[in-house]
Every structure is written in structure tokens, then in C-alpha cells.
Inverse folding.
């Protein structure tokens, strides 16, 4: 995210498209000339900006975009895209934990159903290993409550084990992200991860893995 008085748009080094900084990833050089991602946008030095998708990061490596951007020999390992995904995943899981501490996340099928019926749900969260039956039942409830034309995201990005660890709970399969600052930040981080993975436009109604959809 751009800091105060800094540009809110940058040019992607791969496509040359000018995009909002929130749609890009900034890369910098470590002291050993290794390319590293700067997700927070706070690391010093010259930055090279790339569209925030796995496809474009891998293309940047293949086409030696980082060497041209930094104007020197650099090391951009083939595993860089995996490293980026891991960083984005950890940020999203951290935001998930914060949303629980802020009281803006409920877990469990029954509490998730209750939250849907009460309103104020920003997103439904399902573990990637959740049963299709539970996912479909909550989707049906969400649809029945969606009479005002609004939409809520459906996130299926993490395993139950990952959600358990992030939330300090056991057997977390379904959850509801509630309206509020922490909830909105968590949603933004999760959708950023989904876009990087290339799953943001897939339908989750039938229980597809790793998807973000609108119900």
C-alpha cells in the first residue's frame, strides 16, 4: 500500500500496465543481491513492481525482468513465486487471527449460520477439506438471507489445520467474518492471496477448493 505522498499507481515491469499499488507486488534486493518480496512496502532501496499474480511473477523470473529493473546481476530463484505465496498466506492467516481477537469472526457451523441470519457477515470461510454438504447448506442459508441484493465473499483458502493454528481452536471447518475494521482487513488480505493464486473468480457453490466467489 502506498505511503502518504507516494504514488498510488505504478507500472508493472512485466506488462508495462499502470495499476494501483494494491494490485502489484514490490520486489527489492537483499544485501546478497537476492530478489525478495516487500509486501508491506517498507524495505529500503529501489523497487521493481510486478502484477500481484503467480503467473506474472513467474514470467518476470523467466524473462529476467528483475535484472533489467535493478540494472545489475540478481538472483531470482524459481521458488520465488512460492515464497511470495507463503508470505501472502501468512499475512492472511495473521489477519484471520486478529479478526477473532477483535470479535469479528465466529467459528463453527451453528454460530456461522446464526451470524448469517443476523446479518453483518462480510465473508464465509470454509476449510479446503470441509465437506461439500456443509458448504452447500451454508450457501443456501446465505442465499435465502440475501434479499437486499448485497453480496458476501466466500473464502476457501486454508486447511482446517491452518485455521486451527491461526485461531487457537480445534476442528475449525466453517467460520463467518463479521463487519468491522479487522474483518475488512482480513477480507482484503485473503482476497489478495486468492488473486495471487488465480482463484478469485471461481465459484465455490459446488465446493471447489481454494476459491473465492460471490454468493
Amino acid at each position: 500500500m502506498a505511503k502518504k505522498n507516494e504514488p498510488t499507481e505504478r507500472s508493472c515491469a512485466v506488462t508495462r500496465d499502470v495499476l494501483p499499488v494494491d494490485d502489484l507486488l514490490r520486489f527489492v534486493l537483499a544485501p546478497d543481491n537476492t530478489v525478495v518480496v516487500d509486501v508491506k512496502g517498507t524495505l529500503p532501496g529501489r523497487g521493481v513492481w510486478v502484477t500481484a499474480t503467480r503467473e506474472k511473477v513467474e514470467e518476470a523470473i523467466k524473462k529476467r525482468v528483475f535484472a533489467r529493473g535493478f540494472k545489475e546481476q540478481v538472483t531470482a530463484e524459481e521458488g520465488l513465486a512460492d515464497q511470495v505465496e507463503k508470505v501472502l498466506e501468512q499475512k492472511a492467516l495473521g489477519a484471520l487471527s486478529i479478526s477473532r481477537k477483535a470479535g469479528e469472526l465466529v467459528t463453527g457451523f451453528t454460530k456461522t449460520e446464526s451470524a448469517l441470519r443476523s446479518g453483518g457477515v462480510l465473508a464465509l470461510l470454509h476449510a479446503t477439506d470441509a465437506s461439500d454438504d456443509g458448504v452447500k447448506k451454508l450457501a443456501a442459508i446465505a442465499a435465502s438471507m440475501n434479499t437486499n441484493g448485497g453480496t458476501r465473499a466466500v473464502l476457501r483458502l486454508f486447511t482446517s489445520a491452518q485455521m486451527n493454528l491461526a485461531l487457537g481452536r480445534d476442528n475449525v471447518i466453517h467460520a463467518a467474518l463479521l463487519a468491522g475494521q479487522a474483518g475488512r482487513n482480513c477480507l482484503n488480505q485473503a482476497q489478495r492471496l486468492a488473486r495471487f493464486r488465480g482463484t478469485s473468480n471461481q465459484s465455490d457453490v459446488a465446493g471447489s477448493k481454494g476459491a473465492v466467489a460471490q454468493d
About this structure: Residues 13 and 65 are 7 Å apart (CA to CA). Confidence is low (pLDDT under 50) at residues 201-215. The chain is about 40% helix and 20% strand.
